[in-house]
Write a structure and sequence with these properties.
Blueprint: E1 3-6, E2 13-17, H1 22-41, H2 44-60, H3 62-73, H4 77-97, E3 105-106, E4 111-119, E5 122-126, H5 132-145, E6 149-153, H6 160-171, E7 179-181, H7 186-195, E8 199-205, H8 208-219, E9 224-228, E10 234-237, H9 243-255, E11 267-271, H10 275-287, H11 307-314, E12 323-324, E13 338-341, H12 347-350, E14 357-363, H13 366-374, E15 382-385, H14 389-398, E16 405-406, E17 425-426, H15 433-436, E18 439-447
Parallel strand pairs: 5-6, 5-8, 6-7, 8-9, 10-11, 10-15, 11-14, 13-14, 15-16
Antiparallel strand pairs: 1-2, 3-4, 4-18, 9-17, 12-13
The structure holds NADPH dihydro-nicotinamide-adenine-dinucleotide phosphate.
NADPH dihydro-nicotinamide-adenine-dinucleotide phosphate is lined by residues 126-130, 153, 155-156, 185-187, 190-191, 194, 205-207, 210, 213-214, 228-230, 262, 352, 354.
Length: 450
């Protein structure tokens, strides 16, 4: 059976690949294991130079990579360009971090005690289809910087950008076997990486359900795991906020990437006293979102990833809506921007829709807002809109979530830690924190007794 790769905006086949299976996965792990001793021995400055070269090659091929990603995921080309820019920045950042992630000396009796940051060995990286290369880079950067070798498994639906990156890594001079890409089904290739005795760690981004099975599978060999899972984040808007600004920004916090974003603020919580004014402005702003051909420069939202996924998203909209936008008809897995009024107990407010559907939920006061925001098994991101600085900080501390923005909806930056509380996972990506997930602390005591 071949692996058929589609353009979700046209439903055209853009590639047919031979899918990898367990045998190819084992071979890639064996190559990574063989490459490990030499890669970990590369002098820090040289490893940094190789990562910097990769970053530069990503910049040189930025338009090509953005077009691959836009065609394969259905992302608007302008957004895809931004993502590729971030990928280059991620490799630059971790190139600069190679020689800044060091150990300690600790005062003890009878000698000298110091620590090393050791690489883990072969790491398996399993990534989803929503931000294929972007999310891969968040894991590759720190993994390679720490001296690990990597087997990367892209999602079956979106393998093309990862395969191209592996070619660029070789062109950058990163030795064979240090970064291998194995494109095949998760239940075979992914599962094999999770259970493989020579894989020391799994860095995973995807659904909470598969994350749970990764954790179970990793238990057999006590593998380290980092899990970036689903979210149902709250965008909390107080009546004293700049409501027009909050409403103008809110659609892009849900409908960006057609809502297929683990950080999507898909529950918009609005204080009752400002509710009508906010909702009017929200509907106007949502009406202005430009939905259409991802290749057009001014498109802001493209299609969903697949017909199957569109059917799942549609199942969350079964009654009256506050607003339903327009979407192209005919070919392409398009779904319109949709606003529904909900309570926090409704299915649309409890489950990760992963599509352009936002649940708008009124609240009474600060305590009520915090209660509703935290009433979810997830805890990935969230936003707070208010002009009261003390309240912003009180609420930020009270929310059970890993990443929060105040008077903004942006969660992700190269230099700052990203990751979840509760069933959104654990471990941190990006920033210097990510290096901790791809290294082990070794403690050495050196006796000075004569
Ligand atoms: P999955 O969790 O199924 O997929 C994520 C990755 O895991 C893919 O590479 C997939 O491979 C792989 N995988 C699947 N099964 C296994 C397994 N048994 N062992 C190891 N790896 C496996 O997410 P989906 O892509 O199916 O999306 C489903 C839902 O997950 C979405 O609707 C959304 O709610 C959520 N999601 C959240 C993301 C996030 O960023 N937090 C990202 C993507 C999805 P393959 O696809 O090749 O089979």
């Amino acid at each position: 059976m071949s692996l058929t790769v589609l353009n979700p905006a046209t439903e055209d086949v853009i590639a047919e690949l031979e899918p990898a299976g367990a045998e190819e996965t084992d071979a890639a792990v064996a190559r990574a294991l063989a490459a490990y001793p030499a890669w970990r021995a590369v002098a820090p400055g040289d490893r940094a130079r190789l990562l910097r070269r990769l970053a530069t090659l990503v910049e040189d091929h930025a338009e090509e990579l953005a077009r691959i990603e836009s065609r394969n995921v259905g992302k608007p080309i302008s957004g895809a360009r931004g993502e590729v820019g971030m990928i280059a920045d991620v490799f630059h950042f971790y190139a600069g971090a190679v020689d800044k992630h060091h150990g300690q000396t600790i005062p003890v009796a009878g000698g000298v005690d110091f620590t090393f940051r050791e690489p883990l060995g072969v790491v398996g990286l399993i990534v989803p289809w929503n931000f294929p290369l972007n999310i891969a880079s968040w894991k590759l950067g720190p993994a390679l910087a720490c001296g690990n070798t990597v087997v990367l498994k892209p999602a079956e639906l979106t393998p093309l950008s990862a395969l191209r990156l592996a070619e660029l890594a070789l062109e950058a001079g990163i030795p064979e076997g240090v970064l291998d890409v194995v494109a095949g089904p998760g239940r075979i290739v992914g599962q094999r990486l999770v259970e493989h005795p020579d894989v020391a760690k799994i860095g995973f981004t995807g659904s909470t359900e598969v994350g749970r099975s990764v954790m179970e599978g990793a238990a057999g060999t006590i593998k380290r795991v980092t899990l970036e899972l689903g979210g149902k984040s709250a965008n909390v808007v107080f009546a004293d906020a700049d409501l027009e600004r909050a409403a103008a920004a809110a659609p892009y916090a849900v409908f960006d990437n057609a809502g297929q974003d683990c950080c999507a603020r898909s529950r918009i919580l609005v204080e009752r006293s400002g509710y009508d004014r906010f909702v009017d402005a929200l509907v106007t702003a949502t009406r202005n979102v430009k939905v259409g051909d991802p290749a057009s420069e001014d498109t802001e939202m493209g299609p969903l990833i697949s017909a199957e996924h569109r059917a799942k998203v549609a199942s969350y909209v079964d009654g009256a809506t506050l607003f339903t936008g327009d979407a192209p008809e005919g070919r392409g897995f398009y779904f319109p921007c949709t606003l529904v009024e909900a309570t926090n107990d409704d299915r649309v407010a409890r489950e990760e829709v992963f599509g352009p559907v936002a649940a708008v939920i009124p609240f009474d006061d600060e305590a009520d807002a915090v209660r509703i925001a935290n009433d979810t098994p997830y805890g990935l991101s969230g936003s707070i809109w208010t002009r009261d600085g003390a309240r912003a900080l009180r609420v930020a501390r009270a929310l059970e979530t890993g990443v929060i923005s105040i008077n903004s909806n942006s969660s992700v930056r190269v230099a700052t830690p990203f990751g979840g509380f509760k069933q959104s996972g654990f471990g941190r990506e990006l920033g210097l924190n990510a290096l901790d997930g791809y290294s082990e602390v070794k403690n050495v005591f050196y006796s000075t007794a004569s």
